[in-house]
Design goal:
The structure is a homodimer. By secondary structure, chain A is an alpha/beta fold. The first copy, chain A, folds into 2 domains: 6-64, Multidrug-efflux Transporter Regulator, Chain: A, Domain 2, CATH 1.10.1660; 71-185, Rossmann fold (3-Layer(aba) Sandwich). The first copy, chain A, has helices at 9-15, 20-28, 47-56, 79-91, 102-112, 125-137, 157-163, 175-185, and strands at 6-7, 35-36, 43-46, 71-75, 95-99, 116-120, 145-150, 167-170. Chain A has a 5-stranded parallel sheet, sandwiched between helices. In chain A, strands 1-3-2 form a 3-stranded antiparallel sheet. Chain A is elongated. At the A-B interface, strand 2, helix 5 and helix 6 of A face helix 1, helix 2, helix 5 and helix 6 of B. The first copy, chain A, binds a DNA duplex through residues 8-10, 18-22, 24-25, 37, 39-43.
DNA sequence: TGAATTGTTGACAGGTAAGACAGGTTTAAT
DNA sequence: ATTAAACCTGTCTTACCTGTCAACAATTCA
């Protein structure tokens, strides 16, 4: 069972340094999404919605709530890229999941909702464009960043960027470069 | 093996981000339907009652609890199979979604939680086994039925059944046969 | 048999809703 | 620049819902 984390109005208020009464007003005005408990009508706010609200209003996001935005999914089959990616990104402070094929990647993307997808263009080359295209055409995944790691010798980064990728690394990936790019893409 | 038909108060509480004591109070007040076990008087909540309760109160329904017994996902690239499948199954009373590649199928499977996956073995042959294997190895998807539609001339149904498929149709699929098989697999 | 786990019950402290009111800030008009 | 209006936010109060804690019972497992 996945722990769906929710906040009360008081918790949300403390996170952004205002009175809980103000948070209730944000909810009543429809600016912040929330649902009500049947008892007295207590409000509960999904962390996901709260983080989105903070970002929309350029408010600082508390690190303990930003865990979801530090989640990275790696779609790769080259063993060296899988090993490099997992180790480097975990050491860089990211939560890393690895998928070995595009079907598994799809299930993980929908279930774990990572903020970034690293695609190994080496063996998924034929599918990579279709994947990026699907992400870009669905509002649900529109804010998932995409980082493509090309095959050695593939210098045509422009092709990927035009296809919808947010950044490209020419493989085989350098650990430092990979972490740096990911941090850049996630604003960290 | 985890039959998700009933919930304990603790499970229900975690699902809606509330203390178990509160769930018991909802039950005592008659807002949430439940029954008691003879021993200690433990409460048990039917999933459908719980989902109805969540919907009545505009609370988010966890995807894994969403009733999806009539939802079918078709993973196919052959146009004739897509057309046949969609029309026949919709006329048969099923809610049909179509994915054109395995990544999209993965996202839809995790998001829409269909009860049945129809796989076109024609063009996803290489991946089909990996997909079925992944479904069967993950408890989360263990109760998703799998129906494989083979290529014309492929008579080796046994291979698919051993690989984890619940049923096989030798393609190209006959409309009536397809609907009949799906109804059979979903106990309808 | 006894320990561990899980769920119930009761009592109590604490938190939250809702309305009303006062103070501060922004916006617009003079 | 000054004023007034409009709006947002914080504080206060009352009522009652919710979380926490302790003790206990049923079930499971070794």
């Amino acid at each position: 069972m996945n722990e769906l984390h929710v906040l009360t109005t008081g918790e949300a208020a403390r996170y952004c340094g205002v009175n809980f009464r103000t948070v209730i007003r944000w909810i009543e005005r429809g600016q912040l999404k929330a649902y009500k408990l049947p008892g007295r009508g207590d409000h509960r706010i999904c962390v996901e919605d709260f983080v989105g609200f903070l970002q929309d209003n350029a408010m600082p996001v508390p690190t303990e709530l930003a865990a979801a935005s530090r989640k990275v999914l790696v779609l790769a089959q080259r063993p060296e890229l899988i090993a490099t990616g997992r180790q480097a990104l975990q050491q860089g402070g990211f939560e890393v999941e690895v998928a070995g094929n595009s079907f598994v990647a799809g299930t993980m993307l929908a279930a774990a909702k990572p903020a970034l997808l690293v695609i190994d263009a080496g063996l998924e080359q034929a599918n990579a464009f279709a994947i990026i295209d699907h992400l870009r055409s669905r509002g649900e995944f529109a804010n998932v960043r995409v980082l493509v790691v090309t095959e050695a010798g593939d210098n045509d980064s422009q092709r990927w960027l035009e296809g919808g990728a947010d950044a490209v690394i020419q493989g085989p990936a350098d650990r430092a470069e990979l972490v740096a790019k990911v941090k850049l893409l996630l604003d960290m």
